[in-house]
């Protein structure tokens, strides 16, 4: 699997933007990613808080 060109902080920021009303289509187009990538990020990081990411990486 290819590594992401986006840091975890960038991904979380993107997810927050979606939560504040920006559409998945708009965000995906701006970042040059497929919508499925966004939904994968949401599945993987959506319920995490910034403080819990470090624990996730160590696991």
From TrEMBL:
Q: What superkingdom heads the lineage?
A: Bacteria
Select a single GO molecular function from the record's annotations and give it: DNA binding
Q: What GO terms in the biological process aspect are recorded for it?
A: DNA transposition
Question: Which Pfam family, giving just one, matches this sequence?
Answer: HTH_Tnp_1
Q: Which residues form the signal peptide?
A: none
Gene3D superfamilies documented for this protein: Homeodomain-like (1.10.10.60)
Name of the protein? Transposase
Instruction: Give the organism the record lists.
Output: Myroides indicus
């Amino acid at each position: 699997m290819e590594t992401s060109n986006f840091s975890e902080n960038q991904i979380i920021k993107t997810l927050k933007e979606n939560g504040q009303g920006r559409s998945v289509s708009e965000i995906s187009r701006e970042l040059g990613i497929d919508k499925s990538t966004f939904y994968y990020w949401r599945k993987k990081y959506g319920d995490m808080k910034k403080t819990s990411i470090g624990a996730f990486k160590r696991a």
